[in-house]
Design goal:
319 residues, alpha/beta, 2 domains, 6-stranded parallel sheet, two-stranded antiparallel ribbon, 9 helices, 10 strands, 12% strand, rod-shaped
Length: 319
């Protein structure tokens, strides 16, 4: 029995020693396995990182290519185009200028400008009226036309065209004959009623503004013009003279340079400038000068071109 007990004791010791020897091996296996798992996960993460970097590189490349394509597209779009006169314009530059003008217009209130300019055209309509209207449209400018009485179809059409394009249509007498208009108050009233009726019927709009032929301070009238101004006031008609003369009133073919200078030289010295221009068949240089007159006014700081309205500061030679 003791021997058997001893053997069993030895066997237990042997198993314990074997177990003790196996434990490090098992721990080593676990450690190695854990390292392998960690390594594999790290490898997967590294591979995913490389994949992401690759995708980013592809996206960057695509964005670069898109940018190049956009650049080529812009270059194509900005290639020079030729207008009917053969002048080259770059579409991009034109659009940028338009955007700048739109942004400036959005910030600028013409009614609050320090210098307000009113371009007025007397004696029309004429063969130049349509051209004048087109120039004004090109610059998005509204003006005032003091017209005389003409009953041919083209003139009737032009009266309405002036109104339809957003300009102010005023009266400048029917006949424009001083000897008839200024013979007496009755003669003045008769002429006034004739031009008033003509324009109302032609346009559907009752005209509110009047300009005396020769101005309210003319010296040829046989009737006291204060009587005429009081009559206009009594029926709600506002009369306007001018304080800027372009120089085309009494002379035909005035040089374009002179018209430009006369029309713009002193605008920045006054709050309100009513510019006297003419719309007749003999005033071709006035039409030629008009675009530059507008451009020079636009270039002035805090200055706006407006049509005459009931809120316009009065410019009158007599009160």
């Amino acid at each position: 029995m003791p021997k058997n007990e001893g053997e069993r004791s030895n066997q237990r010791e042997s198993r314990i020693r074997n177990d003790i020897q196996i434990v490090p091996i098992i721990l080593s296996i676990f450690a190695i396995t854990a390292c392998i798992i960690l390594f594999f996960r790290q490898y997967q993460m590294q591979k995913r990182l490389y994949d992401l970097e690759g995708q980013m590189a592809i996206i960057t490349l695509e964005m670069t290519e898109d940018s190049k394509r956009d650049s080529r597209l812009v270059d194509a779009q900005t290639s020079a185009v030729v207008d009917s006169w053969g002048t080259f314009y770059e579409d991009r530059e034109i659009r940028l200028a338009e955007i700048a003008a739109e942004e400036l217009a959005a910030q600028f209130d013409p009614e609050k400008a320090a210098h307000k300019v009113y371009l007025t055209f007397d004696d029309g309509p004429s063969e130049y009226t349509e051209q004048i209207l087109d120039i004004l449209d090109e610059y998005n400018v509204k003006a005032t036309f003091f017209v005389i009485g003409k009953e041919d179809d083209e003139s009737l059409r032009l009266y309405k065209e002036i109104v339809d394009r957003g300009h102010t249509l005023g009266m400048h007498s029917y006949s424009h004959k001083y000897s008839e208009i200024y013979r007496s108050k009755d003669a003045f009233v008769k002429d006034f009623e004739k031009i008033y009726t003509l324009l109302t019927d032609a346009t559907g709009v009752e005209p509110l503004f009047y300009r005396f032929p020769g101005g309210s301070s003319n010296t040829v009238s046989k009737v006291d013009l204060h009587i005429c101004t009081e009559y206009l006031k009594s029926i709600g008609i506002i009369y306007f003279d001018w304080n800027v003369m372009s120089g085309d009133a009494n002379t035909n073919g005035v040089p374009v340079e002179d018209l430009i200078y006369n029309s713009t030289a002193d605008i920045e010295t006054r709050a309100t400038s009513v510019v006297l221009l003419h719309d007749t068949a003999t005033k071709g240089t006035t039409v030629e000068a008009l675009p530059t007159i507008i451009e020079k006014i636009f270039a002035m700081e805090d200055t706006a071109i407006l049509p005459i309205t009931t809120s316009t500061e009065l410019v009158q030679h007599i009160n």
